Amino acid sequence: MKTLLTFCLLALSTCGWTQVGNDLEMYSVDGKKFTLVVAGQVINETPQSRVEIHDTPHDYLSDVVVRFEDESIPPLEYNTLLLSDPASSSKDPVAAVYRIIEKKGKYKVKFVSRSFKKKL
Description:
Layout: H1 2-17, E1 22-28, E2 34-38, E3 41-42, E4 50-56, E5 60-68, E6 76-82, E7 94-103, E8 106-116
């Protein structure tokens, strides 16, 4: 009995380690380079026009800041960016895509798409 209980606990704990999380891709339509900051953590040290985050265990990202290499463009700040679909009951990991666009002289982050990640 003790061996069975130990085995079950070990099996459950390893399942948590092998879970695949959600992905985010963010890109600038006009090629402006930027640095992405999520919850105070800098994702890319060197500004790039396309940034990816892989296997985050969260369904959303909080306190998101987009800082442009061109300092004349003010940073974009968002409380939350959704990765998974809040209306979906599925807990399968997704890949979400956002783009940065310029419209009437102002930059904005816009949702593009969300798709389920392929299972290996």
